[in-house]
Amino acid sequence: MTHNHRALPAFTSAIFPTAIAVALTLWLSACQPKVETPAPATTPAPAAQVPSATLQELMQAFVDPSADAIWESVSTTITKDGVEEKQPRTDAEWLEVRLHALRLVESANLLAVPGRAVVTPGQKLEDHTVDGISTPEQIHTAIESDRAAWGQFVQGLRVAAQENLTAITQRNIQGMLDAGQRLDAACESCHSTYWYPHAKTPWSKQTLAPAAK
């Protein structure tokens, strides 16, 4: 009796090794420890600018002392004994006046922060007895009614302070004298507009356009 054996298709011999390879790959993959994909980094929101000091306190703590120190660092005094020239000479003296200029530049940035009170509620301006001076409420109203104008005055202070810083860094005495005059004009321009607009003063009120930098 003759048995006819049906031949398997030619591709059958290749199926089994392939199936074994696939199963082995899946088993190895299952054995591997799972690596968690880190969550995408998020950019933190910028910190809100919340002013604590009042405008008057900024003036008392930074602006006035720094401006006075810069003006007083270079002077010529004539006495009966002769002429006394005062200016920074040592590295320590130059560093001290430079730090005052830096404080003045950064003070301009602080003055530009919105929402800053003129004085602590219930307090008066330090020079409230000066004839023609405005009240804190009047100053606040004047600033808030035109923030763009206030920004121009702050920019005038920043530019003048930066000019002083540049001259000090270069140890340029004449440059310090010139920048000191512009600083004085920037301060008086702002004060005569907001602090004592009705005072009778020997200077003329002027608006200083920020210098190109």
Oligomer: single chain
Proportion of residues in helical segments: 40-55%
Low-confidence stretches: 8-13, 202-213
| Beta strands, count | 2
User: Radius of gyration in whole Å, from Cα?
Assistant: 37 Å
Percent in strands = under 5%
The overall average pLDDT, rounded, is 81
Shape: flat
Instruction: Write down the CATH class of the domain at 55-195.
Output: Mainly Alpha
- Major β-sheet, in short? 2 strands, antiparallel
Spatial gap, N to C terminus = 110 Å
Query: What is the second-level CATH architecture of the domain at 55-195?
Result: Up-down Bundle
CATH topology of the domain at 55-195: Four Helix Bundle (Hemerythrin (Met), subunit A)
What class would the helix/strand composition place it in? mainly alpha
Order of helices and strands: HHEEHHHH
Q: For the largest beta sheet, what order do the strands appear in spatially? A: 1-2
Number of helices: 6
